[in-house]
Amino acid sequence: MPPGGDGTGGSWPAAARNQHYPVLSALLEDSAEDLYENAPCGYLSTLLDGRIAKVNGTLLKWLGHRREDLVGHRHFSDLLTIGGRLYHETHFAPLLRMQGEVNGVALELRAADGTRLPVLVTSTVKRDEDGEPLLIRTTLLDARDRRTYERELLRARQDAEADRERLQRLATTLQRTLIPPAIEPVPGMETSAHYHFASSDEVGGDFYDLFPLAAGTWGFFMGDVRGKGADAAVVTSLARYTLRAAAVSDPEPVRVLANLNSALDQQAQEDEPFFCTVIFGLLTPKENDAGFHVVLAGGGHPPAVLLRADGSADYLPTPGGQLVGVVPDAQFTTATLDLRPGDTLLLYTDGLTEARTRNPGERYGDEALLAFVRSLVPTSAPGVVRSLTALLDSFGEGLDDDTALLAMSVPPGKR
Questions:
Q1: Does the bond joining 40 to the residue before it have cis omega, within 30 degrees of 0?
Q2: What is the C-alpha separation between 223 and 240, in angstroms, rounded?
Q3: Smallest Cα–Cα separation from 346: which of 390, 392, 393, 303?
Q4: Which of 4, 126, 190, 303 could make a disulfide contact with 315, Cβ separation 3.0–4.6 Å?
Q5: Higher-confidence residue: 404 or 179?
Q6: How confident is the model at residue 265 (pLDDT cuts 50, 70, 90)?
Q7: What is the Cα Rg of the chain in Å?
């Protein structure tokens, strides 16, 4: 640019500027025509009846048609696929007549060789000074890359959903291997259990079992492993099978928990300790079908609830019981009771008492649970589990942790 010039030729003499105007005008006209013909999008002008009046070279190249085959002979709708033609007649054209403009509609063109070209179509009605429609101008953007991207995105989403379904099936299968498929019947006793899965994507750490031991005794336990997922599944499997094996060799509840504590301590890593809460018990039938004698040992687990035939219900704490697997020499305490006809013993995991209620920031809590079971007595193992299952369902999304229930009762007729 000459010194002092403004880029428009203002610093040149008037005669020189006038001399260049015809050349510049010709160049601008040539550039405008070239831009129309070779634009990166297709241009099309049609009469009001849809007959093609003008078409640019870009669109002709896309479709493989000659200009003379289209202009004055074909309609815009003739270039569309059958589905696109129907949409154009029933939606696009009526909307264009009402609004005077339609933007970004996805249609497909049919090329001369029969292939399809996805495009985004924008049409506007050109009007004269009196507002009367003269013709329709249409711009078509090549949407092949966008269609490919959308298909790849859809395929990726479908693959992700398939992977998630596989993971859910794996998690469900793994979870079900960690809890007994059914509780074995105990002569002279009613039993019932329930497991609520908080998520189908992750394996929880709750576990329970009830199984026969020598000399007519039965062992049972309820536990909750820290965390979720594969790591929790490893600890859950170790705890469940260690408890069973330990009960066979030495069924005294305190010794069973001590053996589990040693097993978890040996398997733990420095940065990833293995620990859980557990309550373990022994059932021994009393003489003359008068119920069962129960010995419980607690390792940091929520206390069992004893529902009596006389209509009372209270927690049965095992104070001082430490978490299992935290320290090598953990101490555990026991509690004993007689489960008489009409009595029910309930074990549960803390997903129940830590469920979120409808009041913001409020948890269900121990007092609410005790009040709930007191409203049920006298009841039976199946009855209390049914009622608690309905209670769990009522929490909806507020129940964000797995919850296990195990109940044992002596039928009222036993004496």
A1: no
A2: 9
A3: 303
A4: 303
A5: 404
A6: confident
A7: 40
